[in-house]
Specification:
The complex is a heterodimer of chains A (about 240) and B (about 250).
Chain A: E1 10-20, E2 26-37, E3 42-46, H1 53-60, E4 68-72, E5 78-81, H2 93-100, H3 106-113, H4 131-144, E6 149-153, H5 161-178, E7 181-186, H6 189-195, E8 198-202, E9 209-214, H7 224-238
Parallel strand pairs in A: 3-7, 3-8, 5-6, 6-7
Antiparallel strand pairs in A: 1-2, 1-4, 8-9
Helix pairs in contact in A: 2-4, 3-4, 4-5, 6-7
Chain B: H1 2-20, H2 30-42, H3 45-77, H4 79-94, H5 97-108, H6 112-136, H7 140-148, H8 153-191, H9 196-205, H10 209-238
The chains are: A alpha/beta (about 240), B mainly alpha (about 250).
Chain lengths: ~240, ~250
Amino acid sequence: MPPAGGLAPLDVHVARKRLVNASGQAVEILSDLAFRLEAGRIGALIGPSGCGKSTLMRIVAGLDERFEGRIERPPGPLAVVFQEPRLLPWRTVEANVRLAAPRIGDAELDALLEPLGLAGHRSHFPGELSLGLARRAALARAFAVKPALLLLDEPFVSLDAPLALALQRELAALVAERGITAVLVTHDVGEAIRLADRIFVLSPRPARVIGDILVETPRKTMSAAAARSLEARVEALRTPA
Amino acid sequence: MAARILSFLALIALWGAAAQFSDPRHLPGPAAVLAAMGKAAASGELIAAMAVTMARVAAAFVLAMALGSALGYLMGRRALADRIADPWIVVLLNLPALVIIVLLYIWVGLNEVAAIAAVALNKLPNATVTIREGARALDPGLDEMARAFAFSRVKRLRHVVAPQLAPYFAAAARSGLSLVWKIVLVVELLGRPNGVGFEINMAFQLFDVALLLAYALPFTAAMLLIEAFVVQPFERHASRWRPRPA
């Protein structure tokens, strides 16, 4: 019996997931993939492109139920930051956030939009935003939900490096402040080390977890050398000898 | 705007000039038609006929758009519904309007139900096919977003689905309005004792072209006003979020 208050861990076990490709053949995408993430932690899923990370993310989110296996999510609301911002183009930034989080108060919304640099854009439509701002709006929407589980599918891809770093810092601060359990899909080892408490390295297709690396050192105090050695461990797992 | 008005005035001038050189019984000039219009309006017959016809247009239009949208959405979302209903839609699309009208008058009787049903059935397949295209083009990414954030069914329909269908709905409404009012006149001509179509039939019996135009033109003008003041503002509202070139 998991304790109340969203303290239950995320437990993922996908025995098998198949997709039918364009020529009609069934291809095994995920095979015997399992990991467990304690409440309040950030886990990073890292693996070669095309290994099935996004498919796994959709399964964990409950958007795809055609798989063999079992997912146990912490009880409570779910929020997802997709690879593309996926904002409703016909609703303003503020309306997009409020639709996902109808009970959010005005002060709370201000406190959320301000640090993300969205305060001046709340009445803009997504089509009027740059990609970086649209990604921030998608992050704001996810945080507004106060999720028990937050899933992020390469949310910083195709952003320039300083902006990606700034958004990662904001994400880390918000997750730490709210004690959210989060899963981050990425192919950037540096991003995984900066953000995650735990790094799960995935094999090429059919994907399974081939490495489970605990990031013991608190991120803020991690030395450059420690980060490099961690990176080397991840890279060693990713490139088979 | 100025070009539009000039072009419209040129049309009236051409009509007036052509009327000078032809038998006034075949082509009366603008002044003669205006006089006939004034006479029909003064007797109250013109307004009464237009009101009856407008009510039939509204009833048939609402019926066809509501049923057509619901059916089109279902067919666009569910492959089984599409396979089952598609042959029916193809048959309806290709059945001449006149055949549907005559059949309904024979089966249901020469009454209002048959008249409105016949018009609605003529418009229904167009609305269905247009909305079906819209339902097929719905963005699956936004649908996943709505599911992930646990949007209710009503919220999903109103904020995710309806805005995507709005342009298709406007297109169906626009083509539907012009189709419906033309068919309403035929229905009235064939089997109703009142309305603009009935009056046009009377004018035909008398070979009175001025009277015919006196009924046809105000009604055309009324439909243009609906297009300009209802359909177009709806379209502008529905597309207000699209970035416009400066």
